[in-house]
């Protein structure tokens, strides 16, 4: 019998695998099954192999993750030896990839062969790189023993578990660091909120470099449930995705609302799809009510709908809200809900004082899932991971979310009111508009740029670049932008101006531009 | 055909010349779910048609897109 006290994620997974050796951990779309025993042994072997490469606690391991049994085992192996992993987008633009590598400074980069992978353009000799899809890798792994690694004892609760990159306003992505203890708490929360059991089967549609995948990975593998890996090429074809999932029989679905909207817009989803599903949960952005109503009509008689909210900096999710019939009667976005047990939220003004109940202010989150900060960036960390401004007796770290919220006077649930900065959400991805503008700075013929996000009757969910430029060569602009920006950040439309409007401080007046585009 | 090629070039952010090839979803960096949705909407608007879910599921290469559209016009 293994101990029930786990102070790191490696120990918890060890316990889960020990208790449920023959349960299915991975249900691949092609029908291949991986048991917990197999995943445990594979990840133990990799953990020993990583040690032979001198990878130890706190060394970062970068993974280009292809959602195979092996890539999940790589993540588990890193957790077991306390080496924080960072899943990087295999389709990252090369300059952005360089920036993430420079920030995380991985001691090892694990990749797989793919004609579209950024690895084909990455020539850095400074990082040890290994192709984990090669036969040679498997052979090497198999020479290692499959016992749980001893060095796990040294992995304490505050050891970083992973680094998740998100958009940064200076043009450089930010690496959010989350510890083992924070994830352990997150797992407990997910078990309680969704009442998960070993019989549950989770979808893993979210890309591994995207924060929502934290739920898929930890809520499934660390409760003894199963996961269905969904590759990116399949998620682009919703009808084929649904056909495959109907076979694989998931019980819990988690995605951005955009994915569900995509399935509806592509006329792929039928009310009879996913008959085994018991929960559909979504977050990362607001769910447009017109689409939500359609989904509700299809599924609400048999499936629980849960809207979740949480910044990457607070371990994926920190509030949830069970949707009801009453929510279909109003056009407002769904509430963020109550913060998870153990969390607290302060609604504060610019002077960092609490605003009266019902007034709008910035949501400041405190509690066990508030992350460690940004990797190798103390300045940005200090700006938003601050001491609780209301607590005058002792130090207590809270996260300034940048989200403007207000509390309902009666129920006290949080309602989303907007952002205090220029961050937007697109397909659930966080985008700092300044990151796009910074990419324009690398194009020598562009004099000025401002990027606005417009969603109205005329322009539906469009990223619009407003430029002053002597040359209007959009093909050339796109060619340069693709080196810095992932596809979801590329502008949809370009408008040219003689001069961009300025405010009283001489800065580009984005609000003025937005107003013009809305009129 | 020219009309389809312009839509492909604009929504998938590729040079117009490349629209003459038979590229698939895996050959075009920018062909993700967001641009696929924009592509389908642009085709429906431009040709005044409403594609079925089954047809959309097959529209994963340039040739398949051309074949599907020709069924409607």
TrEMBL record, chain A:
Domain AMP-binding enzyme C-terminal: 435-507
InterPro entries, A to Z: AA_adenyl_dom, AMP-bd_C, AMP-bd_C_sf, AMP-binding_CS, AMP-dep_synth/lig_dom, ANL_N_sf
CDD domains in UniProt: A_NRPS
Single GO MF descriptor: phosphopantetheine binding
Limits of the AMP-dependent synthetase/ligase domain: 19-375
Leader peptide range in chain numbering: none
GO cellular component: cytoplasm
Gene3D superfamilies per UniProt: 3.30.300.30, N-terminal domain of ligase-like
Protein's GO biological process: amino acid activation for nonribosomal peptide biosynthetic process; secondary metabolite biosynthetic process
PANTHER family: FATTY ACID SYNTHASE, NONRIBOSOMAL PEPTIDE SYNTHETASE
Protein name: D-alanine--poly(Phosphoribitol) ligase
Source organism: Confluentibacter flavum
Upper taxonomic lineage: Bacteria, Pseudomonadati, Bacteroidota, Flavobacteriia, Flavobacteriales
TrEMBL record, chain B:
Spans through the membrane: none
Pfam family, one: PP-binding
InterPro entries membership: ACP-like_sf (IPR036736), PP-bd_ACP (IPR009081)
Residue ranges of every copy of the Carrier domain listed in the record: 1-73
Record protein name field: Carrier domain-containing protein
